[in-house]
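Input record, target 12 of the design panel.
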């Protein structure tokens, strides 16, 4: 298998009146074709910014993005419109992301109109094909977003993202705004589509339980940085970073015989604006020592592709 996407030392900083906000700070990873990388972290950890920088919806500050082996860090408008067909996004809130003045037909057809090169009949056929793929009844073709429930609206968002036959999709909290029962339907749909078409996903969420079953690998972010990355099963079975342990301790396990102690995170959240030199988790970490406040840990590979950024992970995990 080859890497479809490689991200190397990617940074995205924003200038604010209070200083430089380090939204994404030196993040490196690769995704193999047909796989899903879950990107997890609390609100404000930079996960959505990371997705937007990869798709060029935001410019990067530094680092490199390779797609299919080609450096796409800096591309011109013509190249960008070519990439748009291959790289798509599904947004969290389908109601906010769909144009309320366009019917479902117009919404799904629009990317084809922008790209050009297809006849009206070809576009019509593709719209219906997409509606079938995502499980939207054809009778809804002339309805407007406000006439649909949340699950159907998100199906429209997925159909629109798929219509140009992309290779890669950033799914930015795609089920967070939906009822739990609908979440499972949409997750199953996305998995079915991936199996049928070999799509590659980055699945961004604050909810670890959502990514467990659909991700091959999971990357945990804290204040703009990667703190741990591992295969999904490994991460859930044996998390090494204190922050991952705390996140996992909050995930409910449906097993009455399995009692889990929730790790409460105490302490002030470090500001991502002009962050200090040390570990960004130090102010909340129960294992923090003097070194942690002076030196930011560099991600270290343990075995396979399990990476962790913590000075004391061996000691903490008695390795
Ligand atoms: Fe905690 Fe120190 Fe490890 Fe950071 S480097 S996670 S503060 S033990």
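The sequence produced for target 12 reads:
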């Amino acid at each position: 298998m080859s890497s479809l996407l490689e991200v190397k030392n990617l940074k995205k900083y924003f200038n604010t009146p209070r200083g430089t906000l380090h939204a994404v700070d030196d993040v490196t990873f690769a995704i193999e074709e047909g796989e899903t990388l879950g990107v997890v972290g609390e609100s404000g950890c930079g996960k959505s910014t990371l997705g937007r920088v990869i798709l060029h919806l935001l410019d990067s500050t530094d680092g490199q993005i390779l797609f299919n082996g080609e450096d796409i860090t800096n591309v011109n408008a013509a190249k960008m419109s070519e990439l748009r067909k291959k790289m798509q996004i599904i947004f969290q809130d389908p109601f906010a992301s769909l144009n309320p003045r366009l019917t479902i037909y117009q919404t799904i057809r629009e990317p084809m109109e922008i790209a050009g090169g297809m006849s009206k009949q070809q576009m019509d056929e593709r719209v219906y094909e997409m509606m079938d793929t995502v499980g939207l009844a054809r009778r809804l073709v002339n309805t407007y977003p406000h006439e649909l429930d949340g699950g159907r609206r998100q199906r429209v968002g997925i159909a629109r993202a798929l219509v140009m036959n992309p290779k890669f999709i950033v799914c930015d909290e795609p089920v967070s705004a939906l009822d739990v029962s609908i979440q499972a339907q949409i997750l199953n749909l996305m998995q079915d589509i991936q199996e049928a078409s070999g799509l590659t996903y980055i699945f961004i969420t604050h909810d670890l339980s959502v990514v467990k079953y659909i991700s091959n690998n999971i990357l945990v972010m804290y204040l703009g940085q990667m703190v741990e990355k591992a295969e999904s099963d490994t991460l859930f079975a044996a998390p090494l970073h204190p922050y991952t342990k705390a996140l996992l301790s909050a995930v409910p396990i449906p097993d009455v015989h399995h009692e889990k102690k929730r790790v409460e995170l105490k302490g002030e959240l470090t500001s991502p604006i002009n962050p200090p030199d040390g570990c960004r988790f130090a102010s909340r970490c129960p294992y923090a020592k003097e070194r942690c406040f002076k030196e930011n840990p560099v991600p270290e590979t343990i075995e396979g592709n399990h990476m962790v950024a913590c000075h004391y992970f061996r000691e903490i995990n008695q390795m």
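Residues 100-162 form one domain.
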